[in-house]
């Protein structure tokens, strides 16, 4: 922004021609930059990732629904501030719930928070994940599912804790969950769980972490945002994984 005045010139400044040494230093700098880029590319292409640890996934899921004896377990990774996760919720949530109720699958929900910085508050994903954890600890699966859907309907809103608590109550949550959410009691724990889950997702996808993602036996399921065919294939015994 300017004030309309001409910028003052420095009468003592005289541009100097670049000498041979300047070009030499420039050339050396370019070589160093190229070497760093090539080295980084080689390192990334040779980096190894450990196998997904199912125990870590089980211990750090925000909520687990379904019979322990269900023949199939899927891990669902979402962020409450993620537009594509909201679309995934609309497309697949009913099918996931019905198959859980029918005993065909067990679903482990992992609420990540890497979109915290995209919210005005800077921590919306973490606070919403903490709210989901409060409900998971104190209410039944129907309340969790209703709050889960309600939060994704408001994915682009930066709700404060009281507003999230009000959503939870409207979803059937009791006073313990309401207080837990309003006070942000489990936000830090939700962050730690998100970090652990994200680490396992990182291992599965070799560093290509994104939401929504579904894992089956530690492998990424393909085409999850193109309807519910991916789930139909899994129920039918196929393995639509990358």
From TrEMBL:
Thioredoxin-like fold domain: residues covered: 62-225
Transmembrane spans: 23-44
Top-rank taxon: Bacteria
Keyword list, A-Z: Membrane, Transmembrane, Transmembrane helix
UniProt protein name: Thioredoxin domain-containing protein
Organism for this UniProt entry: Gordonia hydrophobica
Species classification: Bacteria, Bacillati, Actinomycetota, Actinomycetes, Mycobacteriales
